[in-house]
Structures are given as structure tokens and as C-alpha cells.
Design goal:
Blueprint: E1 2-6, H1 13-20, E2 38-43, H2 47-55, E3 60-62, E4 65-70, H3 85-93, E5 97-104, H4 123-154, H5 158-175, H6 181-186, H7 190-199, E6 207-213, H8 223-235, E7 238-242, H9 244-252, H10 256-265, H11 272-283, E8 286-292, E9 296-303, H12 308-315, H13 317-321, E10 323-330, H14 331-337, H15 340-345, E11 350-352, E12 362-368
Helix pairs in contact: 1-9, 4-5, 5-7
Length: 370
Amino acid sequence: MEAGIVGLPNVGKSTTFNALTKAKALAANYPFATIEPNVGIVPIPDPRLNIIQSFVKTQKVIPAALRLVDIAGIVKGASKGEGLGNKFLSHIREVDAILHVVRCFTKAPGGEEIVHVENSVDPIRDIETIETELILADMQTIETAAPKAERAAKGGDKEAIARNSVFKKLMPVLNDAKPARGVIAALTDPEEKRVVKSLGMLSAKPVLYIANVDEDDVHGTGELAMRVRARAKEEGMQVVPVCAKIESELAELTSEEELKEMLAMYDMQEPALNSLARAAYSLLGLQSYYTAGEKEVRAWTVPVGATGPQAAGVIHTDFERGYIRAEIYSVADLQKFHSEKAIKEAGKLRVEGKDYVMQDGDVCHFLFNV
């Protein structure tokens, strides 16, 4: 599972990506600065790991991670090939969720103007520009495939019937300049759901808005950021305000004392990128469980709804194949009883079988036989 960072040129997209992945590359101030997508791995900040480590003495701590793709700036007309648009749209097609960086700052670091591709700052217009390109690309996909699906449906082919039905539900919505995600969320037929998955509709992907704000608006309460919040609320989306300039500086700090000092200067509890990483993780429908021992305390990533055997398979496929049961306790149990032995003696160690649905924050030992 991976998320793609998208945005118009010069909105701070690559600066945000570089800060998230602590990359040192400098973002160029012109359109198409990023042509091939850069890929980075972003650790998910998780205070529960520190809690576990405080009771389970270990050699190392390994957080969960998110795979992030920096996709080159999209421009109006991308769906028709403008600005290497087809290539950029194909990169979006390959990711599972979209992190949309929206420009809510008016000045560049140092106070100089950063040229906007439309020569003015309007976050809602920018959101609509990209959404329109994704919708147009989806319309092209359906218009190309629809005639063949209709012919095959007349012949009684089960998949073609479902495909044709999905196309007829999607096209009126897309023609009305609305994204596909609403229609797709309402589908109940299993065959139609399977068809939709194979289509890779761009406007069906979940979106998280990143409001790239000025230094004096780190909490995103300014007029531009509030407009993005209102738009997101209408769509049922989330917004994370980020000042890419500040986050870049925070990412470079090596001293914990310096980090605390700079955060205090801006009245921040933690870097905004921590909130962003967690929000992106949640957007992808992911959660963490833990293993804890002398060698390592580690967070493992599983989809929400994963069963015990599926979670065990993330560690090794043999664990899933030979799964017998899992011994599980919570981080709260560890805080209360201070050791796994005490948890067991208190009768709080749960034994779960193959049908168990994993909960976020489970601490697990898997028993298996291959």
C-alpha cells in the first residue's frame, strides 16, 4: 500500500515529500521539477513503541512505515497530455491514496514571491483543477472500454454485464463533474466491486488534503486554510495543515533540545509531519500491531480487518500457513502490570484463534507449526 503526493507546480509538494522522507534534494521553482516519481519510506510516529520499550528491554525499536511517491506537478490539461500529463496520471493510477498538497501560503521563504502556475493563490481553484483532470481521465477510460463491454454484455458474459452496469452508473456522475468515489462506495454487488477494482478509477481514490500554510499560520486557521477545511468537510475528507518550510528545518535538526526549542517557538506539540504520516496511514486503511522481545520491539502494518493468520503472514508466510493461535495483550495492560508474566498471572493474556480480527495496538506472540 502506498500514497502519492500530488499538487499543481510550485505548491510545496516536493518540499513536503523531502521533509517527510528527510531527503536533501532541493525543490526547483518551476513546473515539472519532478519528472520521474521519487519514492520514499516514511516512519509512522507511534508513542506506544516507547511505552512498550520502557517495560520490555530490547536492542532496537522498529516503527511501522509508509511508502510514499512524489508525483510530478499536474497542470490543467493533463488528461489531454499537457505537461507530460499522461505519464503523471499513470503514476497516480498506481498508488492507493492521494495526498493533495494545496497552496495556502502567499510568500516564499525569505519573503519573495513564488510564481503560481495560475498567477494567483486560490486553493479551491487548485483543488478543482486536479479533481477535474482525474475525472476527465476516468471518463476517457470508460469511453474507451464501454463499447466493448456493451457488446460482450449482450452475449451474456457475466463480467462484461457487471462492467457495463458499472459504466452506466459512473458516466452520468463523471459527466456532472463529480468524482467516482461516491458511486463506488455505494456499490453492493460483489462482481461490480471486483470490476471497479480492476478499472483503477483515479477519482475514486481516497484523498487527504495537505494545506501548505505560511509560517504565521502553522495551525491552519488562516482564511486560505479554512477554505480548504470547509471544502474537505463537504467531501468527508481530512485536512492536515503543514508549513513545508518549517517542517524542512525541523527535519534537519539532530538535537532533541533544538527540536523542542523550535517547536515551542511556533507553539507546536510535535512536527506537523507526524500528524500527516499518521493521517496518511489511516487513509490507507492501515493499523499496527506489535511484537516485543529482547532483540527488537517492532510495529507491523496490517489492513484494518486483517485476521490473526493474515497478520502473522506479514512477518513470514510460513507463520500464516502454519498458524495455530496468537497470545495477545494490549499496551494498556503492559502499562498496568509492567510485564508479560504479570499480565498472564492476572488472566489478561488472551488466546485468539484463526478467526480473530486484529485490533490496532495488539501486542502478539504467534504460535505456528509448519
